[in-house]
Design goal:
The complex is a heterodimer.
Chain A lengths: L3 E2 L5 E4 L4 E7 L6 E7 L6 E6 L3 E5 L2 E6 L4 E6 L8 E8 L7 E3 L3 E6 L1
Parallel strand pairs in A: 2-11
Antiparallel strand pairs in A: 1-3, 3-8, 4-5, 4-9, 6-7, 7-8, 9-10, 9-11
Chain B lengths: L4 E3 L2 E4 L5 E6 L6 E8 L3 E9 L2 E5 L6 E5 L5 E5 L8 E8 L9 E2 L3 E5 L1
Classes of the chains: A mainly beta, B mainly beta.
Chain lengths: 112, 114
Amino acid sequence: QKEVEQNSGPLSVPEGAIASLNCTYSDRVSQSFFWYRQYSGKSPELIMSIYSNGDKEDGRFTAQLNKASQYVSLLIRDSQPSDSATYLCAVNMNTGFQKLVFGTGTRLLVSP
Amino acid sequence: KAGVTQTPRYLIKTRGQQVTLSCSPISGHRSVSWYQQTPGQGLQFLFEYFSETQRNKGNFPGRFSGRQFSNSRSEMNVSTLELGDSALYLCASSLGEGLLNIQYFGAGTRLSVL
């Protein structure tokens, strides 16, 4: 079992729709979770971070964390073509030492 | 505030050679992490340095090494290059402490091994 798993996609949604990206992780002691967006040929940029169970909202983005189910998700409301990118889920497996384990990413395609 | 700077942006080497990549973190950040990104394997953690000490290491052969200087700048070295080392090498800087310690990525160095 991979430490962090994501569906590779592509996930295709029409403009204006809600895109739902999911991630599961294997290590129950994981404390903090991150979503990065990576455009083709570019480096990852942070979208959201979360460490408490529940929802965290920032503009059109909502991160959801369920530690009991070892599940973290990212919702993108009112999806735009500019949101088309690969979304990487990252899990910090050990507080204190910065070892982020990344999923392989979900490619999102937003069609106009 | 300047971001994370990686040099060079592109490198072409041949098998057997060695290469050194450089990373200058965001001012005030004491932690630098290195990652290798390939289409097949995704982003894989190489190592992390904090205050000139390697705190964590990924599952890579000893040909991959790094160091951090007193000004927090970091270098990564790969010796005896193999074709499979062709990848995008990313460094990320952070404060290095705390639960939500955010890592900020540089633009990366794209290494091609011929």
